[in-house]
Amino acid sequence: MQSLTGQIKRFFNWIANIGISDSISFYERKKTQLINLAVGLGIPVNIYFAVKNFVENRTDLAIINVCLMTGAFTILIINSYQKFLLGRSVLSFLASILFSASAILFRNGSEYFLLLNVVIIITFFSDKRFLISFTIANILLFIGIKVFLNSSIVFDQVPFSRVMFNMIWAVGMMVLALLFFKNEQLSYQKQVEEKNHELESMNQTKEKLFSIIAHDLRSPIGQLKSSLEMVNKKYITPEQFMEITGKLSMQVDQVYGTLDNLLRWSVSQFKGIKVLPEKVSLDHLITHHAVQFVQPYLEQKNIRLHTEGLQQQLWADPDHLTLIFRNLLTNAIKYSYPDGTITIRAYPNNDQVVIEIRDNGMGMPAEVQDSLFNSVVMISNTGTSNEKGTGLGLKICKEFTEKNQGKIWVQSSRGKGSSFYLSFPKAQ
């Protein structure tokens, strides 16, 4: 029974998707699928009534059924070549002629299909001249047929049950078309709301970026400029300048890291993130790239770095991994107390490799953890040595991790430290 149901669903799915491809817009796809289903469902009905009318010697009505069936096949063939406007035009024209003839000759309730035709024309056509002319023509045909049916002229008449069937079928299809139209309107409204939300998020991000440029970049660069001017004007001796170069170097490194994050994030927003995965040695990447970058910060705070299980092999983009680990290690150092410890641990988990970066620093409350990766606003707090931050690093980590088919999450307790977890596909 389940197998038969599955076959029927696959068959209707095949009918609905005739002519559908990825190049077609969402709205056009939905309209075509609805027409395909309506036409496809009408084929077996017309086959049944064609045979029945032939048996009952209603040859003319049987011929109309055959014409409707042939027209339905023709529309599906036209749609298969993605000539959707032509298919809908043929559908509207054939429906107007054949249903009018059927209603006049046999009084079988087919005039209600003209109203269905009006609903389809109004819903699925955008050309105003076509829409107005076909709508008026079908309404006039419907009114004319209703007037004619009140006359005493009768060519032939089908049983009342047939009339009721046609009326129910027409009304059912009209309801289906109107439901489609309503759903599309709701879908469009939802898309507008999502776009507004994206614009709001972009505005918040823009304000944050301006704040970064105005303060977090200008301040250390201004200090460096002032120090160089003091040397040039001989307000301080070269020896005194050498004493402050260590601090200036750290500030320049922070500016470099912030600029690197800004540039990479900007490129990812405008051009998308291009992923070039390959087999990556976790030990080599962390030891020779990420740790070397943060080594001065580790020494400044006298933080010990402990590693275990780094012999794992990942399948990811090495440049993206380097950026992710640099940001997470910089964050761990920022929120660690002097003389603390940071642990980098990796272990396999089925077809994934999980990496934990743990510190025993400030930690964070639960409400911050919940919004850390999901908030449209970039969250950043001052570090244990009053280090500044932008919050952009974690946003980049999330985006680049997910683009590499990975996951990122955090566990933290206030005053006890934080553990950031990454999961990436294991290299085969």
How would you describe this structure in keywords?
11% strand; two-stranded antiparallel ribbon; elongated; 7 strands; 428 residues; alpha+beta; five-stranded mixed beta sheet; 12 helices; single chain
What's the story with the biggest beta sheet?
Answer: 5 strands, mixed
| Biggest sheet strand line-up | 2-4-5-7-6
The chain-level mean pLDDT equals: 81
The H/E string reads HHHHHHHHEHEEHEEHHEE
Unreliable stretches covering 5 or more consecutive residues: none
Helicity level: 55-70%
Please state roughly what percent of the residues sit in beta strands, choosing from under 5%, 5-15%, 15-25%, 25-35%, 35-45% or over 45%: 5-15%
Descriptive account of the structure:
The chain is an alpha+beta fold and 428 residues long. The chain has a domain at 2-158. Helices cover 67% and strands 11% of the residues. It has twelve helices and seven strands. The chain has helices at 2-16, 26-55, 59-80, 84-106, 112-124, 128-149, 160-232, 238-271, 282-301, 318-334, 366-371, 392-403, and strands at 278-281, 304-308, 313-316, 341-349, 352-359, 407-413, 417-425. A five-stranded mixed beta sheet has the order 2-4-5-7-6, with helices on one face. A two-stranded antiparallel sheet has the order 1-3. Strand 4 (341-349) and strand 5 form a beta hairpin. The longest helix is centred in the middle third of the chain and has 73 residues, at 160-232. It is elongated, with a radius of gyration of 35 Å. The two termini are 41 Å apart.
